Amino acid sequence: MLATAVIVLREVLEAALVVSIVLAATRGVPGRGAWVTYGVIGGTLGALVVAAFADRLAAAASGLGQEIFNASVLFLAVGMLGWHNVWMTRHGREMAANLGSVGSAVRLGARPPYVLSVVVMMAVLREGSELVLFLYGIASAGPGQSSELAGGFALGLLAGVVLSLAMYFGLVRIPAKNLFSVTGWLILLLAAGMAAQGAAYLVQADILPPLGDMVWDTSRLLPDNSILGRLMHTLVGYTARPYGIQLGFYALTLGVLLVLMRLFAQGPRPSRGQSAAQGSSIQRVI
Amino acid sequence: MVRSCHLSSLCLWALLLSPVSFAQELSFTLTLREHRFDPKELAVPAGKGFKLVVRNLDPTAEEFESHDLRLEKVIPGNKEAVLIVRPLKPGTYKFVGEFNEKTAQGRIIAK
After folding, report:
1. Quick check: A137 and B61 CB within 8 A?
2. In the prediction, which pLDDT does A66 show?
3. Are B61 and A223 an interchain contact pair (Cβ–Cβ within 8 Å)?
4. Which domain covers residue B26, as residue numbers?
5. Which residues of chain A have pLDDT under 70?
6. What is the Rg, in whole angstroms, of the alpha carbon atoms belonging to chain B?
7. Which of A204, A239, A241, A266 is the best residue to mutate to test the B interface, defined by the most B CB atoms within 10 Å of its own CB?
8. Residue B69: inside a domain, yes or no?
9. pLDDT at residue A267, rounded to an integer
10. A164-184: per-residue pLDDT in tens?
11. CATH number at residue B64
12. For residue B12, is it within any domain?
């Protein structure tokens, strides 16, 4: 049962962390709970569909369907995370200002939670489809396995939820004026890490060259498949043996997003007539 | 700043479009049955890329995973998958079936 729980936790961890960061990053946005819930539900349904059609997906694109699918899902999430951060450089400060006042629905011109809803959906979709296949494998091994399945699944899921709750409540204890700069950086690193992982899938599919086979090797120090390794992988994109091109994608994502955030923070503000020098809290950190 | 962005994205496209090729006539097959790999140990020549065909004869899906080789791929039940292995330095590279890690273990030895 413990072995099942560990695998479930490994798969759930990334999605759970993404959900907790997204929840912290959208504090004060009305309707965020619903959007995140839609993301989780949509991702779960999507995972079931992907698992059901796993063999077609694997056979697609002359056997490279899975790699291309995984990379696409990751790059879509990177785009949405980037979009969110750019948006927050505009609206972060007014949201932070409104956090304290109870029940004041912040009526902003545009609301981005659906963007992060897509991020949640992608995270759940990718990890979830593997989980479904794994659990299906145990379930089909025979009726004797059902307690193992239920127990392991419950334990792994619980551990994932506890970890992400800890992360969430840790994050929201940060004072409101700093919260969005912290979540902004977390999302930036999350996006860069996902871009690097997407690049790795494209290297595996032989679509991208590795550009440096192994820039470093810390697999003895912190293995990729340890829980801490997975945690760091999700949070900052840690990889024990990165390809050169992964570092390139990481740096490119960070660079492009930081430039975009700076450009958009200084652009003309369409609404609200507040001070033109309104940079967000993320902006001030940069 | 913006210009250098354009330039780097151009470089990226050049990379994406450039042909990536190395000798791949070499091919090895692993069979998975009752959550065990056969052969458990696969000897391959070092310094040569090859195709690794993994045939899953079990009815359930398995995830072929190797952190040493940096490969991971789900193989549906009763299907096979092809993985591209880059030229390896001499050494031992472990792999597992992640969904049945207790039994599905093996290694590639590059000489």
Report:
1. yes
2. 92
3. no
4. 22-110
5. 92-95, 97-113, 142-143, 266-286
6. 17
7. A204
8. yes
9. 53
10. 899 999 999 998 878 888 999
11. 2.60.40.420
12. no
Which residues of B are less than 8 Å from A141 in CB distance? 60
Please state the domain count of chain B: 1
Which chain B residues are closer than 8 Å to A65 by Cβ?
none
The confidence score (pLDDT) of residue A281 equals 46
- The residue of A4, A9, A130 whose CB has the most chain B CBs within 10 angstroms, and thus the best one to mutate to test that interface, is A130
Per-residue pLDDT tens digits for A121-173: 999 999 899 999 998 888 887 667 777 788 889 999 999 999 989 999 999 99
Residues paired with A172 in a beta bridge: none
Contacts of B109 (CB under 8 A, 6+ apart): B41, B42, B43, B44, B91, B92, B93
Report yes or no on B55 lying in a domain.
yes
Kindly list the structural domains of chain A, giving each domain's residue range(s) and its CATH number in brackets, ordered by start: 2-285 (1.20.1250)
Q: How far apart are CA B77 and CA A18, in angstroms?
A: 30
**Least CB–CB distance from B79: residue in A58, A130, A252:** A58
Question: ipTM for the complex?
Answer: 0.81
Quick check: is B8 in a domain?
no
pTM flag (> 0.95):
no
pLDDT: which is higher, B14 or A123: A123
What is the rounded distance in angstroms from the CA atom of residue A113 to the CA atom of residue A92? 13
Nearest residue, CB atoms, B99 vs list A54, A67, A137 = A137
Question: Dihedral (C-alpha) B31, B100, A73, A167: value to the nearest 10 degrees?
Answer: -160
- Cα separation of A283 and A265, whole Å? 7
At B21-57, the pLDDT tens digits run 444 479 999 999 999 999 999 999 999 999 999 999 9
Give dist(CA A239, CA A242) in Å, integer.
6
Show which residues on chain A lie within 8 Å of chain B, measured between beta carbons: 3, 7, 51, 54-55, 58-59, 63, 66-67, 129-130, 133-134, 136-137, 140-141, 200, 203-211, 213, 219, 223-225, 240-241, 243, 245, 252, 255-256, 259, 263
